[in-house]
Design a protein that fits this description.
There is one protein chain. The two termini are 29 Å apart. Strands 1-2-8-4-5 form a five-stranded antiparallel β-sheet, with no helix packed on it. A five-stranded antiparallel β-sheet has the order 9-10-11-12-13, with no helix packed on it. Strand 17 and strand 18 form a beta hairpin. By secondary structure, the chain is mainly β. It has no helices and 28 strands.
């Protein structure tokens, strides 16, 4: 996580102070911030929650928090700009007698059809998500470019026999937790037929100021059936040629750049055994050559950052994995 936030004890009734810090050394314009606020006595709505920065009210969105939070918890979403390593303190006032913050004037609009959820921020972008979560994403259209190609497996589990189990399917239960305009939040839950105790829960979170989706896949696995989790997407890149190869860079202890020509594959691997390690490889599906690697035994040999950029001449697609290589061996693989 690039931001660290914490609660201070309320200085006055129905007010908390939250400090948010930029920790990576990058300027972040209109960056999304989400804060959980508890109010057991007074239900919170858009009308009685106010977010202040330097005494100036900010636009914000207020929603009841999901069931995993304690009763009486609400999510307050807003955005603010940070320069590198800046810390900013926000006051959140709530309850009776508080004049609520306004909703953003523009943002995400959630539309529903029989088969899909559409998240529209006209005229800039439109996300399309199947109701059964098949393939995870059907479309991310950022005119004039479509960024997703149909055919990816989406989210899946791999059991201890090596069998792949789709995380999606008919019978998914779907709940809309936040409807915008600042944040749209969809939750999909599925009991897998192989074991009624094996459950997948997938959250898709779309913040308005970014063209990304945060994907959180939680698995309840009391019988210890699952060995791996994975996600496969088909990105709508132009075919690689010798004149215009696919460009990739990976976030490891340093950045690793490469070109991928037709038939080539690049990957970032990382783990913790016997110490934090990572390496970047290029090759084919059957044979890889190490290009960059962490230095064994050196203090600088920290874990990989766990992100990738995949580019052609029109699109740059970004992927990041939280906690990459921190608790297991992880891999990001991209083909040409």
């Amino acid at each position: 996580s690039l931001f660290t936030g914490w609660f201070a004890l309320p200085a006055v009734a129905n007010e908390i102070s939250v400090e948010v810090s930029e920790t990576a050394g990058v300027r972040r314009a209109s960056y999304p911030v989400s804060v959980a606020v508890r109010s057991q006595r007074v239900p919170l709505t858009q009308r009685n929650v106010q977010v202040l920065l330097d005494g100036i009210p900010l636009a914000a969105q207020v929603d009841t928090a999901p069931s995993e939070y304690k009763q009486g918890t609400y999510l307050v979403d807003f955005h603010a700009t940070f320069v590198p390593f800046q810390s900013r303190r926000f006051r959140i006032r709530f309850g009776d007698g508080v004049q609520g913050s306004p909703l953003p004037e523009h943002g995400h609009v959630l539309r529903e059809t029989d088969d899909h959820f559409l998240i529209v921020n006209a005229p800039h972008l439109t996300w399309k998500i199947p109701r059964n979560l098949s393939g995870l994403l059907t479309s991310m259209n950022f005119p004039p470019c479509e960024h997703i190609r149909k055919g990816g497996a989406g989210l899946y589990l791999v059991d201890r026999t090596g069998t792949r189990i789709p995380a999606e399917g008919e019978g998914d239960r779907t709940v809309v937790l936040r409807r915008g305009p600042s944040v749209v939040h969809l939750r999909f839950s599925r009991k897998h037929s192989r074991s009624t105790r094996l459950v997948s829960q997938v959250d898709l979170i779309f913040p308005v100021t970014r063209s990304w989706v945060e994907v959180v896949h939680r698995v309840l696995d009391p019988e210890d059936l699952v060995a791996e989790l994975g996600c496969e997407l088909q990105l709508n890149l132009n075919p690689a040629t010798s004149e215009q190869p696919t460009l990739v860079d990976f976030g490891a202890g340093t950045q690793g750049y490469m070109t991928l020509r037709a038939g080539q594959t690049g990957q970032l691997l990382g783990g913790t055994t016997p110490e934090p390690w990572w390496k970047i490889q290029r090759g084919t599906s059957s044979r890889f050559l190490d290009l960059l690697a962490s230095a064994p035994g050196r203090p600088a040999a920290r874990g990989a950052e766990g992100w990738a950029h995949v580019m052609d001449r029109e699109r740059c697609l970004a992927l990041a994995v939280d906690g990459f290589g921190k608790t297991a061996d992880d891999r990001i693989t991209t083909t040409s």
